[in-house]
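README, section 4: Worked example with a bound small molecule

Sections 1 through 3 covered apo chains. Here we extend the same pipeline to holo records, where the ligand is supplied as SMILES alongside the sequence. The molecule in this example is S-adenosylmethionine. Nothing else about the input changes; the structure line simply encodes the ligand pose together with the chain.
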Amino acid sequence: MPRGPKKLKEAAVVRETPSYTHPEAEVLLRPEVGTQAQFRKKKEPRQYRYDSSLAPQLSWDGKNWARETGEWLLRLIEEAAKLPAPHEFIEKQVLRRPDGAEIVVRGLADAVRELKALSRPFLDWAGKAERLSFQVPSLPLFVHERLSTRAILETLKGHRRSKENQHQIFELFANPKHSIADQVLKAYEHKDDWVNRLILGDSLVVMNSLLAYEGMAGQVQMIYMDPPYGVKFGSNFQPFVRKRDVKHNDDEDLTREPEMVKAYRDTWELGLHSYLTYMRDRLLLARELMSPSGSVFVQISDENLHHVRELMDATFGSENFVANIQFAKTSSSTGEHLPATNDYLLFYARDIERLKFRDVYLPKTLETEIGGPYGWVELDDGSRRRMTPEERLNPNALPKKARVYRLDNLQSQSMGREKGEGAASWFPVELDDREWRPSMRARWKTNEEGMTRLKDARRLQATETGLYYVRFIDDFAAQQVSSSWTDTVIAGFASDKLYVVQTSSKAVERCLHMTTDPGDLVLDPTCGSGTTAFVAEQWGRRWVTIDTSRVPLALARQRLLTATFSYYQLTDEKRGPAGGFVYERKQNKKGEEVGGIVPHVTLKSIANDEPADEEVLVDRPEVESKVTRVTGPFVVEATIPTPVDWEGDGIEDSGVDPRSYRSFVERMLEVLRRSPVLQVGGGKTVMLKGVRAPARTLSLSAEAFLAVTERPVAFVFGPENGAVSEKLVYEAAKEAAAKSYSHLYVIGFAIQPNARQLVDQSEAAMGVAATYVQATPDLLMGDLLKNMRSSQIFSVCGLPEVKLHRAAPKDGAARYQVELLGLDTFDPTTMEVDHRHGDDVPAWLLDTDYNGLCFHVCQAFFPRTAAWDDLKRALKGQYEDSVWDHLAGAKSAPFEAGEHGQVAVKVIDDRGNELLVVKKLEEAST
Ligand SMILES: C[S@@+](CC[C@H](N)C(=O)[O-])C[C@H]1O[C@@H](n2cnc3c(N)ncnc32)[C@H](O)[C@@H]1O
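The generated complex, written as structure tokens:
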């Protein structure tokens, strides 16, 4: 397999804006988008069964498998009871259920356990009893985009394109440049270098793809899931991007208020019933992906906390419950009775016995301990006293060099050996002219020798009530984190958040530190604005994140691409983060422990005359000063399109079962009936009425009237799991023109570039004007979500106007520049074109050497936000201001021609729609 020169990989550790890569990790090669017609490795849908012990109901009447099972188990219990201990059968007994699942009983214990499970109380809801299993289509993932902040920075340096640095750029994209033949033949068989992954699609389908195509069962160390809360959250509207920084007032006129878009849908067809089905299915697949020592966190509000906990008990086993963490989401809130300020994290292990768990500590200071058990003080002269009420409230009132301490238990209730505290003993101790003994039911935590050492070290103190151990606050400058987190509120106003429902990074960070090591794999099936991916990137973990909506995915892409992080020193740079971070013991001028290794003086260490223990504060690795790290290479993938040859003779010849296509068309028709609204942009809509299936049609899927003008319009739906093909558009436009519809709407989840071209030229070429309408990918979640007028399901896509210029040559080499003139969206009601200036789109991306397959993001522009500002500040002066001006505008930085002689521009509109335009270099104007 052709690969880029390996030695360049080590270049990833260069000190100039480095990023972390994961040289030891591998992943199966996925094909690039564009090769789907050749990709033939289809797989059957996968069947998942719910745990057979979780009977949806135990009815003793009628024909019910639960009754049969119950009676079978009772008979086995009777038989096994007659056998000698341990009451095991010579051969295991097996009962096969109607759905194919098996119950296996080896003896009395198994039979009793199964019977108990059968009669356990359970959560029931509409639709649960009917489904003992479910099927998920097995779809491959295609790589759509490759991104690398370092590649963008390198490209902007504007050095000559040579064979050598051409490879280097590919290496920065972590793209070994597989040939098309390799991609098709070796996809999902050969290993490739690991890259982090942002995936568009329904988490159920994507997780199934990871399992079915990539065999990733048992490989994920931690899953963080922040699903919709299932509470009809009607207010999750937000502008896709806000203008954060207005530099030139006169530009303001150019820029309209960004459109409010629905971030994602949280209204469920059968309310809580659909929601519980949605959650149960996804949790089941999540469990399959988890490593034996892995863990899962589900973020949820108090409204459905109890239901989700029931589901998790049922899926993971109540014995694998680790904690219910409550974390502060806001510092204040209003409500009728007790306002809610917390959200919850349900934390389960895949197997509690094997759970990977790292203690996480919070700093312990006088301030954090105010009013707590630390109520005593030792003064500079060695005298000791209680703290005054004023000192307890204000540590600044303490005398200089005072050491604060608390009295702690010196006795252990256990009658045997106290874990780690030396031999437990019962003997008299003399102090302050009194003799002290443990109570009859207890023992000292150390032996006589140890007690003498504690006394010599002035670690004993007697009060009226007993003898105690003196624990100074600085014995250990940290404290173990509990299940109540109060420091997780996102600072600033709600509007400062990138995403309406953005999770606090601190909460995710803590979960990550508790349950993973650098280099481990983290999965978030509910990406949103990418908080988990961001935190995983920050801490050198590998990540995969999934979302079914385009807006959050676009936000996550932008957030990751423009992020800056500290460079944590690696113990072995060749191994990457998997080799671990460097931790050191350090003190500041005040003598406070500020390093990642902190001494921990304990009763045991003093009593046994041992050096103090040392704890590692995992979140305090050594930082390489003056080095700005950026996000490592990552890819954008999607389940769309699938292994279907849409270039064939239409649906019938495509390999898709025409019956399943028809049922998909019927479902889409129903969605269009219930939600007869097309979003045009700028908050405008096209209303439809009389949506129905056309009589005697060859290629059209639906017809309707425009509500305002009453003109008849036709629709064609692209495939469920594929891109709209040119052929589909051609056939539909031919029929729409022949039948005199005034307009054709082509509705799809994705569209091939040549099909898009035909749509835009349809009026001239086919005699009927056509418009491409993007459907939200969450429709693929089937009938779980409610489709209403307000659902924002269909959005009319605009057409970017792109100009390719010849720029001034440099060192004799021809150079080019791309200018985004704007985005035109046709409003079929008013028959007017809405023009949005290039400076006024949320984002656009440029591939300066487009190979017709995967889009390599060589330059990324965020004209409406100050997205690059942090990086610009961090890299002070390394690049000329003009470079940053380009990245915040509508005209690219100059670039040299690549080997493919064409460029691609991807424009992202306010609704997260992606619009691709390809230009040949020979089209460049001077
Ligand atoms: C509450 S938000 C997550 C916010 C995220 N924690 C953050 O910090 O930005 C839930 C996300 O789950 C996504 N989602 C809902 N159902 C999904 C599904 N079936 N597959 C993938 N993503 C889904 C929604 O589009 C939404 O972006």
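What to look for in the output: The mean pLDDT is 84. The first helix runs from residue 65 to 82.

Section 5 describes how to batch many such records.
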